[in-house]
Design goal:
Elements: H1 7-15, E1 27-30, E2 33-35, H2 53-56, E3 76-80, E4 84-88, E5 101-107, E6 122-127, E7 146-150, E8 158-167, H3 179-191, E9 196-206, H4 229-232
Parallel strand pairs: 3-9
Antiparallel strand pairs: 1-2, 1-4, 4-7, 5-6, 5-8, 8-9
Helix pairs in contact: 1-3
């Protein structure tokens, strides 16, 4: 027997608790090994594991997440240009959402622990789809517990904010049947926060040649728009190529 979709059912759906598997990139990785524990070298946000991407897209909170400000976080001092660096998920979690991953960097004018991230940023690494963007298998970050990359050897010595970010696109969905059903369910999905995490580690880099002149340089906020194709892409049936959001990876 086929059950019809009713307004009452929609209301019940809208009022039901929202379940999801969110995550926090709050552990520093250096040359393939974990250093410290949760938030040892990563600024602690105030919204735990709840994503808050769309509501802070035009806010200074987009730099390092809500509440993750300059203050008492320790700086990891032992990084050399050319080392492998990255972030690990808390609580032995895995990235269980399809979507792209990024690292941005911003050099502090002095001690990074005092730096609010208002200076220039550059994208140093990204991971986009290597297969179908509408399949979890098309995303290299899916199922991983870390995001890591190799620092350029040309970086200038100094203290940096290292901003790791993963954007889940699985909540972008569009229904094409009955108009009322489409309206109600689309608004249900809009109520859900985009499952996106961004965190900032504090690191000091030495041993670089200092010849890098990163381009393009950007400000955060300012790297995304709510209508960017890479943020609104329909994972559940989108067509065409996926367009990576944000600036291009910087030339160094």
């Amino acid at each position: 027997m086929v059950k019809s979709f009713t307004l009452a059912a929609a209301v019940a759906l809208l009022s039901a608790p929202l379940a999801s598997s969110h995550y926090i990139l709050n552990i520093l990785m250096h040359n393939g090994k974990q250093v410290g524990g949760e938030y040892s070298y990563v600024r602690k946000n105030s919204n735990t594991y709840m994503p808050s991407f769309m509501e802070i897209i035009d806010s200074n909170d987009l730099r390092c997440n809500k509440g993750a400000v300059a203050g008492s976080t320790k700086t990891y001092m032992d990084v050399k240009a050319g080392d492998k660096i990255g972030l690990k998920l808390f609580n032995n979690e895995f990235i269980e959402h399809p979507g792209p991953g990024f690292f941005y960097m911003s050099k502090a004018p002095g001690n990074v622990s005092d730096y609010d991230g208002s200076g220039d940023w550059f994208k140093v690494w990204e991971s986009g789809p290597t297969g179908s963007p509408t399949s979890t298998g098309g995303w290299p970050t899916y199922g991983k517990y870390t995001m890591e990359f190799t620092l350029p050897t040309t970086l200038e010595d100094g203290e940096y904010l290292l901003r790791g970010e993963h954007i889940g696109i699985h909540e972008n969905r569009e229904f094409s049947t009955d108009v009322a059903r489409r309206y109600i369910l689309t608004n249900f999905y809009r109520r859900r926060r985009k499952a996106t995490d961004m965190e900032c580690a504090q690191i000091r880099i030495t041993g670089g040649t200092g010849t890098a002149k990163p381009s393009p340089l950007v400000k955060i906020p300012g790297i995304y728009s709510k209508t960017d194709p890479g943020l609104t892409f329909n994972f559940w049936g989108g067509k065409g190529a996926y367009v990576m959001p944000g600036p291009a990876v910087a030339t160094l």
